[in-house]
Design the sequence.
């Protein structure tokens, strides 16, 4: 696994952990400013993911690189930025950054939601010199959600010519009497999701997020190759800001050292 893959995985980690929050976030005063319908969720999903009695302005992330079934619908936009270390061999470790913007369209609750993401895959050189787009169509189903999508769509710069990675994902919220829901997600995809070293064929991915409370989640994520772990939290009670930090490839798969990645994301609803 080359260092370029780790930078790419770090970018996805930032996007998934920081930008998945807009689909789940809500602002709460004494009563919620946004309803479950505004966020494209059922009431059960919203109550499972966020304790409605808390005055949190956002929701912690539920993945760290892998796609999830939930997504942003019309009225929700978000932006995120972060960085990750990369292994440069004898030159030691260096840092690289990534950023992204997500726009929600459609209605995931009653029809189909569409989440459009613009990823800036590297901030090391000139800003926005390298980037790509992603598209996800998603629909809420009971206490879960299903999505199909594509990454590396219309890449430019260093991402130009990269093969599109198609995927299908499903997420389900499990609730327990101790009020600590678990969000399980999984799916299949090609290219960057493939389990083979040459990225041929189709591979499986998945993640599990334990919501310790309405503001903190612990995440384990497997994106085709290498296990990642992270912690995501909302640092401010009334601000829809989500911060996530963790390690990519914690078991040194393909003899590549673990990489640290962290990012923050902000969401806003104009409905």
Sequence:
């Amino acid at each position: 696994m080359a260092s370029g893959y780790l930078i790419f995985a770090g970018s996805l980690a930032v996007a998934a952990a920081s930008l998945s929050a807009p689909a789940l976030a809500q602002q709460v005063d004494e009563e919620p400013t946004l309803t479950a319908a505004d966020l494209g969720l059922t009431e059960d999903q919203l109550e499972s993911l966020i304790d409605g009695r808390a005055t949190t302005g956002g929701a912690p992330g539920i993945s760290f690189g892998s796609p999830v079934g939930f997504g942003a619908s019309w009225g929700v936009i978000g932006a995120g930025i972060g960085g990750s270390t990369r292994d440069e061999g004898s030159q030691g470790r260096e840092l690289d950054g990534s950023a992204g913007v997500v726009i929600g369209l459609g209605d995931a609750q009653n029809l189909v939601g569409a989440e459009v993401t613009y990823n800036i895959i590297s901030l090391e050189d000139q800003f926005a010199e390298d980037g790509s787009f992603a598209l996800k169509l998603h629909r809420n189903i009971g206490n879960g959600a299903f999505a199909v999508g594509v990454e590396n769509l219309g890449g430019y710069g260093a991402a130009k010519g990269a093969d599109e990675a198609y995927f299908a994902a499903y997420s389900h919220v499990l609730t327990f009497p101790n009020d600590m829901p678990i969000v399980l997600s999984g799916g299949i995809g090609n290219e960057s999701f493939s389990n083979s070293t040459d990225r041929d064929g189709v591979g499986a991915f998945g993640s599990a997020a334990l919501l310790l409370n309405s503001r903190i989640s612990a995440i384990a994520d497997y994106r085709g190759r290498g296990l990642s772990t992270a912690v995501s939290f909302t640092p401010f009670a009334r601000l829809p800001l989500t911060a996530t930090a963790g390690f990519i490839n914690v078991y040194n798969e393909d003899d590549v050292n673990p990489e640290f990645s962290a990012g923050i994301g902000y969401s806003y609803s104009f409905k």
In short: The radius of gyration is 17 Å. The first strand starts at residue 76 and ends at 87.
